[in-house]
Design goal:
70 residues, mainly alpha, binds iron/sulfur cluster
């Protein structure tokens, strides 16, 4: 597993904006930026189908709750 860089080309691939669980805030790209400070209702997570998740060999989901993987 590799740490996801906070880079625009990676942020542009993030699917959080289409996610039904995403908190109503400007922040997204949680696997690089860290967890949300907002309450998150688990209604599914799109990370498992995201190309960032695949390319960086990430193994979890709900990074908006768990924070960026170490
Ligand atoms: S793995 Fe999840 S948090 Fe990371 S870029 Fe993809 S959709 Fe966004
Ligand atoms: S980290 Fe997963 S659950 Fe959270 S907003 Fe992104 S896709 Fe949705």
């Amino acid at each position: 597993m590799t740490r996801v860089p906070f880079a625009p080309e990676e942020a542009g691939r993030c699917l959080c904006g289409e996610c039904p669980s995403k908190p109503d805030e400007m922040k997204s790209f949680y696997c690089a930026r860290g967890k949300s400070t907002a309450e998150v209702a688990r209604r599914g997570c799109l990370c498992e189908e995201c190309s960032v998740q695949i390319d960086y060999n990430l193994a979890d989901s709900y990074y908006c709750i768990l924070g960026a993987p170490e």
